[in-house]
Amino acid sequence: AQGAGTNGNAGDSAPIRVASSLAGAHFGASFLPRVGMEVLLGCLGGDPDRLVIIGVLGNGAHPPATFSHAGGLPGNRYLSGIKTKEIRGQRYNQLRLDDTPNQISAQLASEHAHSQLNLGYLTQPRENGHGNDRGEGVELRTDAAAALRAAQGMLLTTYARTQASGGQLDRDELIRLLGECAELFKALGDYAGQHGGQAADTAGQHAVAAAFKRWAPGTGTDGAARALMAFGAQAGSVNVTPKTHVTYAGENIDQVAQQHLQLMSGQRLNATAGQGMQLFARGAGVQAVAGEGPMLLQAQAGTLTANAQKGVKITTNEHEVFVSAPKIRLVAEDGSYLELGGGITLGTNGDIKLLSASHQWGGPSTAQAAKSGFGNQPTDQRFKLHYLHA
What we know:
Blueprint: E1 17-18, E2 23-24, E3 27-28, E4 38-43, E5 51-57, E6 79-85, E7 92-98, E8 105-110, E9 115-123, E10 133-141, E11 154-157, H1 172-194, H2 203-214, E12 229-232, E13 328-331, E14 337-340, E15 344-347
Parallel strand pairs: 1-5, 11-12
Antiparallel strand pairs: 2-3, 4-5, 6-7, 7-8, 8-9, 9-10, 13-14, 14-15
C-alpha cells in the first residue's frame, strides 16, 4: 500500500472495502463490520495490496445471533434474519424470519419502546424452537406513541378479501350499507316534513356518499384527493373509554339505525340546540316520562301548543290541576264557551244546566297565581359560530 494506513502508520494496511450484495451511488446494502469481528479477506486479481472484506465469520467470542435475546442453536435453527446491537449498549434492532413448520412468521422490531410489527403465526420468543402462541395475523405494537397517516384516505374494515384478492380499497359492502343508510334517512326525514315536522338535511350525507363511491387509489383520479376515513365492521363494533368521549363535526352528524337508536345516561342527558329541536315518531307514539321529580315544559318566547286527533287528557292522582292565565277560554265545537278573566262569561245557543245537591251563593272572591319568570335579562356575552374549510 502507498502511504500511511488506517491507523496513521505505514505498518497498517490501506482502507479495505467491504463487499456487499448491492452497491450504487448513495444506495445499496450497508453492513459495516464492527471492531472485534472476524472477517474473511480476499485479494482482487490475487494482489495482496487490493484486499476486500468478502464476509464476516462467527467464532467462539461471537456466536450466532440470538433473536429477541432468547434461545440459541440448534434449538432455534428455523429462525433466520438480521439482528444488530446498540453501540455502547445492549439493545437490538432485528428482522426475524421464522420458518417453523405450520407456524411461519416475520418480525420487524426495535427494542426501543419495544416497538414491533409482527406478521403471521405469532408466538412468544422461541426457546429451543418452542414459543407460546400469541395469535395469528398482524400486530403493530409499541410502548410509546403510534400514528397512522394516509393523505388519500384510510379504510379499516373486517370484510374479508381472502388470500389478498381484490383491490386496495374494495368496499362494496360498505357502499351498500351506506346506500341503505341514506335511503332510510331520507325516507323518514321526508315523511316528517310532510306531516308537520322538519325534513332532514340530506346534503351533507349525500356529499360524503358520493365522494365515498368515487374514492380510488392513486393520484390520477378525482377520488384520490378526498382524504376519507371509512370504518366497516361486519360483526359489530365497540368504542369505549373510562373517560370523556368527544364527537365533533364541522357540519352535520347523521346517526341512523335500521332498528333502535338508544341513548342512556347514568346521570343527566342534556340535549341543546341553537336553532330549534324536533322529535317526530312515525308510529307507536312518543312518550316523555319523569320517573321521579317534576316535568317542566316551557315556551319562553312563544306559544305552547298541544294538538291531538282523538282527545287530550290531563289528570293527577294527588293535589290539583292548576291552570292560570290572564284570560282563559274554553270553547266547544258548537260554539258554547266559558271565558274567565275580567269576570266569568258563559255563552251558548243551548241550555245551561247546573246540577248539584245544593247551591251556595256568597260575595266577591278571587285567588292569586304566581307568574313564571324566564329570566329575560339583556345578554352580556355573544357567541360566534364559524367553521373554516381546509
